[in-house]
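Name: DUF5658 domain-containing protein
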Amino acid sequence: MDRVFRIQKHLLVCLSLGLLNAADALFTHQLLQKGGRELNPLMRSLYEYDPVIFLLVKFFFTYLIIAIGFVPLKRRVQILLNLALLVYFIVISWHVIINVWLVK
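Structure predicted for DUF5658 domain-containing protein:
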C-alpha cells in the first residue's frame, strides 16, 4: 500500500518556515499592542479589522507551509522556500531586536 504522505527533503525547511511564521504572528501582535505598525498593508488592514482574524490567517498559513513539506516540489520551488526561510529569519531577528530595545 502506498503512503499518502511521504517525507520530502524540504520538510525541515517547511517546519522551520512554519514555526518562524507563527513566531512572526505572535511578535507582530505583541508589537502592535505596544503601538507598533504593521508594514504589510494587507495584514495591517486585516489586523485593524480584527486582531483575532489576523492571527487565525497567520496560523492558517503556518499550517499550509508545514503541509507543503509533505508534497513533492520542483527544485526551483525548494530554492524559493529556502529564500523565504532566510527572509523570515531576518524578520524574526528584527522582531527580537525591537523587543529587546523596547524592554530597555
